[in-house]
Structures are given as structure tokens and as C-alpha cells.
Design goal:
The protein has about 120 residues and is an all-alpha fold. The protein has one domain. Helix content is about 80%, strand content about 0%. The chain has helices at about 5-25, 30-45, 50-80, 90-115.
């Protein structure tokens, strides 16, 4: 059984996106280098949509998880007798990250369906 090329590139994009996200969260000065590496990898890969979708979905899911955790921590602090916490714009951030993940899902769907529907006859 052979694995389609888009699957390999999607997994590579997922690992690359997650690894670069980890590096960026640990060392913020790495951010410009991370963006340059992702741009070069996306431009050079034969399966750009699969690579991009693989990189976008895990990073978007991570951001949504972090936002949810922040809202829960804030709610917990707000319930304490001497604490107060408010988060502004959480709905807008969740919507933006949801759209970010939706773009990743769209790129993945395009990578899956492209050989069937968009191939040159």
C-alpha cells in the first residue's frame, strides 16, 4: 500500500508547524526566522496545500486550546473571594482562530480532492 504524496506533506507540515510554533513560544526572537522557513517550505513543496493545511490545523488548534485555558483560569480567579478577572475579546479571538483552522481544513480538502477534480486532462 502506498501513501499518497499529500498525506506525507500534510504530516510534514504538521510536524514543521508544531516544531516551529514550539520554537517561537520559547524564543520570541526566532519569529522572523520561523516565518521565513515556513514561506520557503511552502513555496518549494510540490504539495503546497497539504503542507499549509498540515501546518495551520495543529497551530490553530493549539491557539484555541490556549484561549480556552485562559478563559477557564480567569473564570476560576473571578470566583475566588478576593480575585477579579476579565478577558476582553475572547469571542473575536475564538472566531479568528476558528477561521484560521477552517482555512487549514479547506487547504487539506483541496489537497485531497485536487488530483480527482482539478487534474489536467
Amino acid at each position: 500500500m502506498t501513501v499518497p504524496p499529500w498525506v506525507r506533506w500534510w504530516l510534514f507540515g504538521g510536524f514543521a508547524g508544531s516544531g516551529l510554533l514550539f520554537a517561537t513560544t520559547r524564543f520570541s526572537l526566532v519569529f522572523p526566522l520561523v516565518i521565513a522557513v515556513l514561506v520557503v517550505l511552502v513555496i518549494r513543496s510540490p504539495e503546497r496545500a497539504a503542507f499549509g493545511g498540515g501546518a495551520i490545523i495543529p497551530t490553530g488548534a493549539w491557539f484555541l486550546y490556549q484561549l480556552r485555558a485562559a478563559v477557564e483560569r480567569c473564570a476560576e480567579m473571578d470566583r475566588s473571594p478576593s480575585g477579579s478577572c476579565e478577558i476582553y475579546g475572547a469571542e473575536e479571538q475564538a472566531l479568528a482562530m476558528g477561521l484560521y483552522v477552517a482555512v487549514g481544513l479547506g487547504l487539506t480538502a483541496y489537497a485531497v480532492l485536487r488530483p480527482r477534480f482539478f487534474s489536467r486532462a
